Amino acid sequence: MEQIVLYSAVLVFLLVFASLAVRIVAPYEKGLVVRLGRFQRTADSGLTMIVPFVDSMFKVDMRERVMDVPPQEVITKDNVAVTVDAVIYAQISDPVKASFNVQNFIYAATKLAQTNLRNLIGDLELDQSLVSREQINARLRTILDDATDKWGVRVGRVEIQRIEPPTDVTNAMHRQMKAEREKRAVVLEAEGARQSAILHAEGVRQAKMLNAEGEAGAIQRVADAEKYRRLTVAEGEAQAIERVYQAIHTGNPTNDLIAIKYLEALQKMAEGPANKVFIPYEASGLMGALGAVGALFEKGKPGAVLAGQEGAGSKVGG
Question: Which of 13, 94, 221, 238 sits in a 20 to 30 Å window from 272, CA-based?
Answer without folding.
Answer: 238
